[in-house]
Design a protein that fits this description.
It is a single chain. By secondary structure, the chain is α+β, with helices and mostly antiparallel strands. The chain has one domain. Helices cover 26% and strands 35% of the residues. The strands form 2 sheets. The protein has a 5-stranded mixed β-sheet with strand order 1-2-7-4-5. A hairpin with a 2-residue loop joins strand 4 and strand 5. The longest helix is centred in the C-terminal third of the chain and has 15 residues. The chain starts with a helix and ends with a strand. The N terminus is likely disordered.
Length: 96
């Protein structure tokens, strides 16, 4: 028998980023995120530039009453425009 966590899949964004939905699904009784609302994503990125390394933490909020799919598209645009890090250096969690 599979555990609850084994049933949950990360959402892949087209550009190679992935979103950990486990905390959100755990607090929503295993539902899949799809309804409309204001979605929040915690972002942690390891950024190296000019011989310096830093860890950046941020929270991205979607526009009000966005579907989850639209919120992910908004997040993707934000990441491409504002975050100078490779997808493998970025951790994203859907906030419960």
């Amino acid at each position: 028998m599979k555990t609850f966590k084994e049933h949950i899949e990360e959402t892949e964004i087209e550009e190679g980023y992935s979103i950990d939905t486990y905390p959100w699904q755990l607090s929503h009784k295993g539902q899949t995120p799809k309804e409309k609302g204001t979605w929040a994503f915690d972002i942690t990125a390891s950024i190296a530039a000019n011989g310096m390394a830093s860890l950046e933490n941020d929270t991205f909020f979607s526009k009000a009453m966005s579907s989850y799919k639209d919120a992910v598209k908004q997040l993707s645009k934000y990441l491409k425009k504002n975050l100078p890090a490779k997808p493998k250096d970025v951790k994203i969690k859907l906030v419960p």
